[in-house]
Amino acid sequence: MHDHVHPGEHDHRHPHGHSHGLSSPARTDLGNARRLLIVFCLVAVYTVAEAVGGLLTGSLALLADASHMLSDVAALGIALMAIWLARRPASRRRTFGFYRAEVLGALINGVVLIVIAVFIVIEAFERFSEPHEILAGGMLLVATGGLVVNLVGLALLHGGHNHSLNVRGAWLHMMADTLGSLGAMISAGLIWRFGWTWADPAASVVIAALVLASAVALLRDTVRVLMEEAPKRLDPQLVGAAIEGVDGVCSVHDLHLWTIGSGREVLTAHVVHETTGERDRHLLAELRGVLSERFDLEHVTLQLERAACQTCSCDEESCVFEQEEGR
Question: Is 0.90 surpassed by the pTM of this model?
């Protein structure tokens, strides 16, 4: 039997359990925000410098690496936006707040990155057949500066990358760009030492592959959120089994897991139980505790439903009442 509570009613026998953590400013890591802002400024400034250096030296590898650093700027900006949006309260019309703005930004970012990667590969193959003159010394200097900026960014973000999905995503972007800077340095060294101009377009293809991999991963994660798939880290069957393992729970159904925005996961479920009276409230607290401790789920809505007479331990009078109410 299903017993739902309508707005304005209060039902002691079948309460809803709500555990809300989506819009609490206390959960925002301001330390992460400061580190992200510092790295964002460093990378944004050097992206412009590397793009100018690529144009002046004639290096496609530097331009490719600048485009990859541009993806870092976008990733850092998205992470900063997510923290800022997390501090904004939900409105009457936007009951979940503004978390999906981050997802839309990531979608645009991923599409732009794919376009950039395709352009770099096309230009690289043209340069294989018609090599361009490259100023290897300047190229090496600019690529070395890019490596230094990326290493500083990695060091600043390292402290929070294991505790925040936003910071981890930005950290992974920085790691890929570090490899791109190394590729540009190696190609500059080969051109300077041996005159191998083909090393520049070869390095740009490698960097384009890194850009493409980042873009595809970003789009895949974005589509998962927009399609409201269960978060990758959570198995709905395991979550359901954990709920059913709580004493007094008979079964769980209509279990839904989805993601509102980066790291903001939501669960709703109907829980069939055989507890009575005050035990209902303790059951909700126990369920929320299990979901929080085992799965780090904080935004949880649970509908408790009393089990049928043949399976519950309720008294006969309350069973008759429930059966009549359910007709």
Answer: no
